[in-house]
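Hello,

Our lab assistant flagged a job as stuck in the queue for most of the afternoon. It eventually completed. Since we weren't sure the result was trustworthy after the delay, we are filing this so someone can double-check. Below is the sequence as submitted and the structure that was eventually returned. Let us know if re-running is recommended.
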Amino acid sequence: MTMLASSGKTHRQALIHKGRVFNVFQENVTLPNGAAMKLDVIRHPGAAAIVPLTRNHTVIMLEQYRHAVGGTIWEIPAGTLDHGELPLTCAQRELTEETGYRAADWQMLGEITPVPGYSDERIRIFLATELTLSVQNLDSDEVLVVREIAFTEALKMISRGSIQDAKTICGLFMADAWLKEHSRGIT
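-- returned structure --
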């Protein structure tokens, strides 16, 4: 089996669009197999997502309006890292801002790369437990309703296609695996 080189080489990078959250670049690259091409790449600062789990084995979820997909979808709380911000700090901030909850216990579940074909975004996913009510503080572009769903029902919602958001699917499955591994499985 032939191993590919771990990375290509960027020869030129031109900013196409400077956005509020991310930038789009056109890059002239040579791929590990020697092919030369132009690629459009989204450069993203990264994000953190949270699976907030209550003592009653419910997960705090969002029914959130997303213009890009033309409607409301189910999601776990998440947000973009501020410049220089640690992923855990972002997760703690976003949990409170979006849901009005704080968590005393945090576990890093893992990291995902949602769309590696055209973006370098990485999302760190956390499990948040020992929740207490705080004060919700939504941004002006956040149109959402906070819902409490039985954890087992949330997993079934994935199978039924009710949950389609990639970070949410990954987060719920990662939380389920972590809970089972640490003898905190939910039946």
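-- support follow-up --
The delay was a queue issue, not a problem with the job. The result is valid. Residues 166-181 form the longest helix (16 residues). The mean pLDDT is 93.
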